[in-house]
Specification:
The chain is mainly alpha-helical. It has 8 helices and no strands. The radius of gyration is 18 Å and the shape is globular.
C-alpha cells in the first residue's frame, strides 16, 4: 500500500535517494540560516528587540543544515548538488515571497514593513515545516538512524511557529492587522503553488532514482495535485490564522545543540 511511511521508508533504504533528500533539506536550512542572520543584522531601530530572536531562528536553521549533513556523513555520503527545480526557498524568493536577497545583501537597515513581511512569510513556511516534521516524528521518531535528529528539528519548528504567531499578533495589536492579513494571504497562496511544483520535481527525481513504475509515479503525481486543489480551495487558511501560543517567548534563549553523533 502506498503511504507516506512506505514512501519515506523507500527513500531511507536507498543511498542515492537518501542523499538527495538530505541534500535538499540541508541546502534549504542553510539558506534559511543566512536569510535570518541578515535580517537580524539589518533589523530597524524600531524592531531591534527582535534581532536576538531572529538570530536564534537563523542559528536553528544553520543547525538543521548541519544535522542533515551529519546524517549523510554517518552513511559515508557527500551532499549532492540540489536541482534548481527542487530549491523551495530560492523559488519562493524569486516569486517575491519574503525579502529579496538583493535587499539582504545590502547594508541598509530594513523597514518595519520588511520585518512584518519576514514574519508573515515565516508564519506560512514554518507551518509547512512543522506539518512535515509532525508526520516524520509520528512515523520515524523512534528510528535508530534519524529519530534523534527528527525530534530536535521538530521541537525547533514548533518554537519557530509559536514565535511567528506571537510576534505577528503583537504587531496586529499595534495597528498592522490589515497589512499582516494581506501579506499572509499572498504568501500562503504563493507557497502552496511552490510546494506543489517542488513536490512534483522531487517526486520525479526520486522516481528515476528508485525506478518507480509509471503507475506509482502517476499515483503520487495525482496525490500532489489533489493536495494542491484542497489547499487552493481553502486549506491554505490554516497557514494564515493567528492565535497566541501556549509557549510564549519561544525563541527567547540560545539555540539548542545538534544531536550527537553527527
Amino acid at each position: 500500500m502506498l503511504t507516506a511511511r512506505s514512501l519515506f521508508q523507500e527513500i531511507l533504504g536507498n543511498d542515492e535517494a537518501y542523499r538527495l533528500f538530505c541534500s535538499i533539506a540541508a541546502a534549504g536550512a542553510a539558506q534559511g540560516g543566512w536569510e535570518n542572520g541578515r535580517i537580524a543584522a539589518l533589523a530597524p531601530e524600531s524592531r531591534r528587540h527582535l534581532a536576538p530572536k531572529i538570530a536564534r531562528h537563523g542559528a536553528d536553521e544553520d543547525k538543521h543544515g548541519r544535522i542533515f549533513n551529519g546524517l549523510l556523513r554517518r552513511r559515508g555520503l557527500e551532499p549532492c548538488t540540489v536541482p534548481a527545480e527542487t530549491d523551495y526557498t530560492l523559488i519562493l524568493e524569486r516569486r517575491g515571497i519574503g525579502l529579496p536577497h538583493a535587499k539582504l545583501r545590502a547594508d541598509q537597515p530594513l523597514t518595519e514593513r520588511d520585518i512584518i513581511a519576514y514574519l508573515a512569510h515565516s508564519r506560512v513556511t514554518e507551518q509547512r515545516a512543522s506539518d512535515r516534521m509532525d508526520a516524520l516524528t509520528r512515523h520515524f521518531g523512534d528510528h535508530p538512524e534519524i529519530g534523534a535528529a527528527i525530534h530536535v528539528i521538530h521541537a525547533d519548528e514548533v518554537n519557530h511557529l509559536a514565535y511567528c504567531h506571537e510576534e505577528l499578533l503583537r504587531l496586529a495589536a499595534a495597528g498592522h492587522g490589515r497589512v499582516i492579513h494581506d501579506l499572509l494571504r499572498r504568501s500562503a497562496l504563493a507557497e502552496i503553488a511552490v510546494h506543489r511544483d517542488v513536490g512534483l520535481a522531487v517526486m520525479a527525481r526520486m522516481g528515476r532514482v528508485l525506478r518507480w513504475p509509471a503507475a506509482k509515479s502517476a499515483a503520487l503525481t495525482a496525490g500532489i495535485h489533489a493536495l494542491y486543489a484542497y489547499e487552493r480551495l481553502g486549506g491554505w487558511r490554516r497557514m494564515v490564522t493567528l492565535r497566541m501560543p501556549e509557549h510564549r517567548d519561544a525563541l527567547g534563549g540560545p539555540a539548542t545543540a545538534a544531536p550527537e553523533p553527527v
